[in-house]
Amino acid sequence: MFATRITKYARHAASFMLHFAHGGLLVAGLIVTLFVASRIANHGVQGLSLGSFTGGPATSAAVEEIEPEVVEVADTTATKLSPDLQRVKTYIAKRYQVSAVAVEPLLASAQQTGRSVGVDPLLLVAVMAIESRFNPFAESPMGAQGLMQVIPKWHPDKIDVKSDKGAMFDPDTNIRVGALVLKEYIQSTGSVERALQQYNGSSDPTAPYANKVMAVKAALSQAARGGKFFGV
């Protein structure tokens, strides 16, 4: 009888312990589940605060950060021609059979450069007419290049073509260098005509080159005033 009771109590104890163990596991499982759920909820809130959903403040901020910066582009529109040079443009287009559209930026560059350097823009245009007939890619056997047929090796203080051998075929660069050369020669000789002869590399006392350029300049001046002088 006693052994039977002991066995019965042992079974009850074992059953109790088994239930307790299952209960403990359930409690532990519940605790773990609640902890994980809490973590997920916290991360979800953080995600919201960071703009996880489209349209959130953080998303807008991120878009703003990667959005390329808007840079103002400088106005590169050619300098507007004066009324006089507008008339000269028409004259050149007819006299030299070149496009008025193509010659306009050349005249604009001569206008701006002439004013800044201190050389009559019409003198620069006349030199272009004689030297290249407004062909910016002209090149002579002697190495004279561009609109004003400048020889770069003779003017290393004004242009360095070692880094860019095609620099003198840029109209603005060529006109600027040509104007600086003429300005220097005018100052050193004291005369536009002698400066032109030096520009041409000629010491002929009759100054044929200078006379030719000045004749073209006179025609340009006549056209600028509205005259119809197409004889040169």
List the helices and strands and how they pair.
Blueprint: H1 2-49, H2 57-66, H3 83-95, H4 100-117, H5 121-131, H6 171-189, H7 192-200, H8 208-224
Helix pairs in contact: 3-4, 3-8, 4-5, 4-6, 5-8, 6-7, 7-8
Family: Belongs to the transglycosylase Slt family.
Transmembrane segments: 12-37
Protein name: Transglycosylase SLT domain-containing protein
Number of domains: 2
Strand content: under 5%
CATH architecture of the largest domain: Orthogonal Bundle
**What's the tally of helices?**
8
CATH topology of the largest domain: Lysozyme
Shape: globular
| Poorly predicted spans | 1-37, 43-78
| Computed Rg | 44 Å
What does this structure look like?
The protein is an all-alpha fold. It is 62% helix and 0% strand. The chain has two domains: 2-66; 83-224, Lysozyme (Orthogonal Bundle), CATH 1.10.530. It has helices spanning 2-49, 57-66, 83-95, 100-117, 121-131, 171-189, 192-200, 208-224. Residues 1-37 and 43-78 have low confidence and may be disordered.
